[in-house]
Amino acid sequence: MNPWIVVLAIGDLLLVVAVAVIGAALVEVFRQLREFRTTLALDDLPLPLDLRGAKILSTDFGLASAMVSLPEAVIVVLSTKCATCLAIAQSFAGGAPNSVWFVLQTTEDDAASMRAVLNSCRERLVVDRDGRMCERVGLQVTPSVLTVRWGEVVRAQAVSSVRQVFSLVPVVSPIGARTVSDGEDAVTESGSRGFVELRDD
User: b/e map of 112-125 (b: 16 or more CB within 10 Å)?
Assistant: First the structure.
């Protein structure tokens, strides 16, 4: 037998073994990285939150009773003191689905800037002065997303990115919903126009 053929065969065999060893090592590296991400909570996933009270309704946040007609919706809770909140608000600057509502924790001085960003969603925005309404139900984390079914909050989650918020948005429309045209102020149930403001009177 030609010795060169033997050498080439041995070389091919060693190459196959090396590739197999490197492949197994890479698999192990990726497995360990996944474990590290899970241990350190680095996965880009919303985190569950506990709220105070056995039954929390969307109306507890001052949101319109129209949410009761939605099989599923989300309330995005933002704060003017949070950079991530501003990024999330800016992602909805061009508008949001009818299934997305907003609660804005703010002070008198900071309200205008975030209102301007969310102007296109003003008919579904409630201003919670100093976070008093959220405090009543034990919601102390912003940004966060509350999942609502037929007007009742069924899940609360802390979010840390725009992508997480979008992943929680359901694709539904309210029954008999009325579309607000550009330049037209939304009319609330109380007959006021524009933003709804929560007051702790």
Answer: eebbebbeebbbbb
